[in-house]
Amino acid sequence: MENKDLVALNKLIDDATAKETALQQQEAELALQNEQFAKVLEQHKRQEAELNVLWDMVKQYMIENNIMKHETSSLSLSLSPLGKYKAENIDKVPDDLCKIVRSLDNKKISAYYKLNGSLPEGITDLGYKLNKKVL
Questions:
Q1: What backbone torsions phi and psi does residue 69 show, to the nearest 5 degrees?
Q2: Contact (CB, 8 A) for 23 and 29
Q3: What is the pairing mode between strands 76-78 and 69-71?
Q4: Residues 88-121: pLDDT tens digits?
């Protein structure tokens, strides 16, 4: 790799890490500047989890009591099917209700590549992922 390529790559890395650092510093400064703000954020996270539990309870109550629609003065709720299903034993489901999915076995393809030094015909590599480790 040419020196100018390394310089360009290092500039991109510096820009990305500077932005990350700036965001982390901003968050830390806000938390330090206002301890109450930090407490509110933490409380908000807990309350959001509690709120999700409450809405799940509402949904479950409606399901158990066969209430498909309900309105209050400020809210309208309705249940609708997800349209997704599962089978206890797929072998007992008629074939015409199933689809046969053919997919690549990435482990076998990796082994083939390691063994032969090239990919099988019709297979292309999807590229790389970036692994980041702070040193």
A1: -140, 145
A2: no
A3: antiparallel
A4: 999 999 988 999 888 999 999 999 999 999 999 9
Q: Which contiguous run of DSSP H or E holds residue 71?
A: strand 69-71
Contact 98, 90 (CB under 8 A): yes
Say if CB 41 and CB 34 are below 8 A apart. Answer: no
Instruction: Tell me, yes or no, if the pTM score tops 0.85.
Output: no
Of the candidates 75, 49, 74, the one whose C-alpha atom is nearest the C-alpha of residue 62 is 75
Phi–psi pair at 121, nearest 5 degrees = -60, 135
Check: CB of residue 25 under 8 Å from CB of residue 31. Answer: no
Per-residue tokens: 30: 């806000």
**What phi and psi values does residue 8 have, to the nearest 5 degrees?**
-65, -45
